[in-house]
Amino acid sequence: MVTAVAHRLAVQRQEINNTLAPLRLSWEELKMVQGKLRGEMALGLQKDTHHTSSVRMLPTFVSATPDGSERGDFLALDLGGTNFRVLLVQINSTENAGVKIQSEIYCLPERVIQGTGTQLFDHIVDCIMDFQQKQGLLGKHLPLGFTFSFPCKQTSLDQGILIHWTKGFKASGCEGQDVVKLLRDAIKRKQSFDLDVVTLVNDTVGTMMSCAFKDPRCEIGLIVGTGSNACYMEEMRNVELLEGDEGRMCINMEWGAFGDNGCLDVICTPYDRIVDASSINPGKQRYEKMISGMYLGEIVRNILLQFTTQGILFRGQVSQRLCTKDIFQTKFLSDIERDSMGLLQVRAILTELGLDSTCDDSIIVKEVCQVVSQRAANLCGAGIAAVVEKIRVNHCLDHLTITVGVDGTLYKLHPHFAGIVQETVQVLAPSCSVTFLQSEDGSGKGAALVTAVTCRVSVLKP
User: Where is the Hexokinase N-terminal domain (predicted)?
Assistant: First the structure.
């Protein structure tokens, strides 16, 4: 009897190991990912090969980071998820309280983000008017920075064509249109209302600028939350998409689409394919779907479903709840993986999800969560390693010291994600000393700082 039980457990363990093995990436595989991203970056920066790269490498027309002399009051809008923020940002010297922020969060209902573009931008303007009224700002003409966290092809600081929606947004009549014009048109429809839209900023760029105000060595922005993206300061001589060789340009990588051309298929698992196929944008944002908060819970759920059908979990009983898409939110991964979380507490979370579990089930669930989130952090770290190595080579340095500005709930709230990212960068880019600085006030503050830098530079121009 004992031998039979031991054999059954050994077979079960082997099935678990076989299923999770493709998700446990080796250092050689991570170096491969790093190298492939470097290759895609090079293709994306070149005029003749830009269209072949899965990484868009979009110029942002942000050519300078804060130097500490920026001053003034600015409005900022932050649109990047189901919550929309309006901010009043007051920039002073660091000795005089630095940056003061007053903000309000407004909800974007599903009917708005999946309705028409007119509905979406009218709703945004209504939120801005409500905020200005509460702050006593109606009638005041303040420069405005617009953080728009979706893939855009920018042709100037205040013009950007939406390439495609991501993160569940499907508002019609927006793709292929200038989003600043859509905002300005919505402002005009209010007639008695006026705003001076100065800059359009990606949330990743905003994060970089926000952190650069604190640390001048910050030349990279990273978002790891609902979605994921990165930006960095590139030498103009390498940006063939624009005229001129002098100075620098912040490049919005749009790295969530890395692998959309099939270059990451070798590390793609059956669970990644299931999650991709059931998403609203199949075949797109493949890298993002392996590392960002919107998808990790779904990867876990599909693995748990597989284990249950194999009789490994939940007594082999596939419940309706386990078959329900998006039931296993990524925040549960963060909770389950906390070092202080005991098996009884894990069981309590599973019970909350409607899953009748044993302590043995809890051990396996925790292992699945750890493997999925570690792969995500490893892949994110491989991406940052590619970027810092590119900057080191650009500067012809034997050793680079640089700071990455970071925002996003997955990076900030997961108990181990940040540490794994940092360790991965250290291993894959040993010639770089990389500091990760968390953005305290989000990308909205960065939009105001881009606007402030733009105002400062425009004053200096003859």
Answer: 16-213
Question: Interior CA angle at 393 toward 389 and 398, to 5°?
Answer: 90
Instruction: Locate all alpha helices (DSSP H) within 200-295, ordered by sequence.
Output: 203-212, 270-277, 288-291
> Which residue, among 434, 402, 425, has the nearest Cα to 218 in the 3D structure?
402
Task: Give the whole-angstrom CA distance, residue 234 versus residue 18.
Answer: 42
Strands 218-224 and 228-235: antiparallel
Average pLDDT for runs of 10 along the chain of length 462? 73 91 98 98 96 94 85 88 87 69 91 94 92 87 87 89 88 95 91 79 90 93 94 96 90 96 97 95 95 95 94 89 88 85 82 84 93 98 98 97 95 95 98 95 81 74 52
pTM: 0.88
Query: What separation, in Å, do the N-terminal and C-terminal C-alpha atoms of the chain show?
Result: 89
> Can you list the alpha helix ranges (DSSP code H) found in 237-292?
270-277, 288-291
Does some domain include residue 206? no
Domain match, 156 and 187 both: yes
Same-domain check for residues 53 and 166: no
CATH number at residue 334: 3.40.367.20
Same domain, 245 and 304: yes
**DSSP for residue 172:** B
DSSP for 187-220 reads HHHTSS---EEEEEE-HHHHHHHHHHTT-TTEEE
Quick check: 193 and 125 in contact, CB under 8 A? yes
Q: How many domains does the chain have?
A: 2
Residue 450 inside a domain? The answer is: no
Bridge-partner residues for 400, per DSSP? Answer: 432
From the number of C-beta atoms within 10 Å of its C-beta (0-12, 13-18, 19+), residue 110 rates as exposed
Q: Are residues 83 and 231 in the same domain?
A: no
User: Does 457 reside within a domain?
Assistant: no
Specify whether 197 is located in the same domain as 262. Answer: no
> What residues make up the domain containing 169?
61-201
Q: CA 258: distance to chain centroid?
A: 13
Task: For residue 435, give Cα distances in angstroms to 99, 376, 399, 438.
Answer: 22, 20, 14, 10
Active site residues: 85, 149, 203
Residues 343, 101: Cα–Cα separation, whole Å: 42
Instruction: Say if residue 109 is in the same domain as residue 233.
Output: no
